[in-house]
Structures are given as structure tokens and as C-alpha cells.
Amino acid sequence: MNGYVGAQHRFHDADFAQGWSDRFVPSPPRVALFDLILEQAARPSIANAHVLELGLGPGYLARHLLDRQPDITYEGLDFSDAFFEIAKKTIGPHLRRVTLTKADLLDQSWPKTLSRQPRAIISTWTLHDLGSQQAVEAVYARCHETLPEGGVLVNGDFIKPQGTSWVYEPGRFEIARHLELLRKVGFSEARSLAHLEPNIENPTAAQNYACLAALR
Ligand SMILES: C[S@@+](CC[C@H](N)C(=O)[O-])C[C@H]1O[C@@H](n2cnc3c(N)ncnc32)[C@H](O)[C@@H]1O
After folding, report:
1. Which end of the chain has fewer CB atoms at under 10 Å, N or C?
2. Residue 2 in domain
3. Is residue 190 part of a domain?
4. Which atom of ligand 1 has the smallest separation from the CA of 57?
5. Does 114 score more than 90 pLDDT?
6. Is the CB of 79 under 6 A from ligand 1?
């Protein structure tokens, strides 16, 4: 069997944003991804407690980290006011430690909008929506320029699994290519920590995501 894996989004529409958030509540494998990211984001032993998330969305990953790391400050970047409104409710009392930064990841000046330099840049289920390998590579390059030496990048995102005969939207591509792009822009120790909800034979658009980590 084969078919197409991809999704259409209306990120600036409040009803769409609410529907997406309701469908994508953290299930056990999604929480497993959050835990992997938490572990990596806590790794740098540099004196900087600021964590940046690309694509804050409804704030599920943000809440997971803020609940468990009382010492961090957090910056959630997104281009959607509709998602910011939902994230504010999800994050609740932790909001005083959070900066909401409105920027478009396709605009290469997004690093200039940040409130301060982060020690870790993290993301889940966002970069594939930029629509191409070139756009993901450009984000990886901007992250490399933004992080201090010893900082980490952890990207949990939908990928195209090896061995599939299905056609995937262009923003979903192989783990090996992600690692190649991370190395190309200058990261070291680029690796995949997990392939979650794998499904080669009969995949849905919500399956097959990887946890990709790299060191500045
Ligand atoms: C799947 S959600 C992120 C989920 C979030 N990481 C969580 O754990 O709750 C994807 C988010 O990326 C944002 N996004 C998509 N394309 C973007 C772009 N070009 N610039 C900035 N944000 C973007 C969307 O508005 C949406 O809020």
C-alpha cells in the first residue's frame, strides 16, 4: 500500500488552532519526546538558563519543561496570535518566566527578535511546516549562529522513514539528511536519539517523528 503523507494548516485561524491543540494533546510517545528534549536541554553546563522554542504552538512542550525546571527562563517563538492565546492558557502560572516572541521562521532576521541568547534551542513538530529542506537548513544555520559554544539544538519533528514507498510532503525528509544538514552548518555530535511512533507500512500524518540533537 502507498499514498501521501502531509497536512494543510491554517495557523492564523483561531478555530483551526484550537482544533489542532485538542487533537494533539500529549500522549505517552509525545511525552517520551518531551522527556528526551528535557534531558538534552538541561545538558549544557554553561551559565545560561534561557531556553528558546521554535514554534511554541499550544505550549505543551513549554509546560513540560517549565513544570520540571524551576531555574529556567523560556522564550516561545511563533508567528500565530491564535496559538499564543492558547499557549498562555496552557502555560498558566509559569508565564512570568516566559517571553512570547512573534516572528516568522522563513524570515532570516528572526534571531534579531530574540530577547537574549539561549543556551538551548528546541522545537517539536514545527520545522517540517516550513515546506522544504532548504528552509530547515536555513533555520539550522541561524540556530548555529545564535547559540553559544557548548549550546544545544534539539529538534523533534516529523520525518520520512527509511524504506517507505509513500510520498511525503517536502518538509518531511530522512533522518540522515537532517544530520547531514546539521553538520553542514557547523554543528558537531549531530545524532538521532529516537524514531517515535514508527509506521512504515500504513502511516498517518501524526506518526514517524524523530528527536534530532546537535552541539554548537
Ligand atoms: C505543531 S505546533 C508546535 C507544537 C508545540 N511545540 C507544542 O509542544 O505544543 C507548530 C507551531 O509552529 C508555528 N509555525 C509554523 N510555521 C511557522 C513559521 N514560519 N514561523 C513561526 N512559527 C511557525 C505554528 O503557528 C504553530 O504554532
Report:
1. N
2. no
3. yes
4. 27
5. yes
6. yes
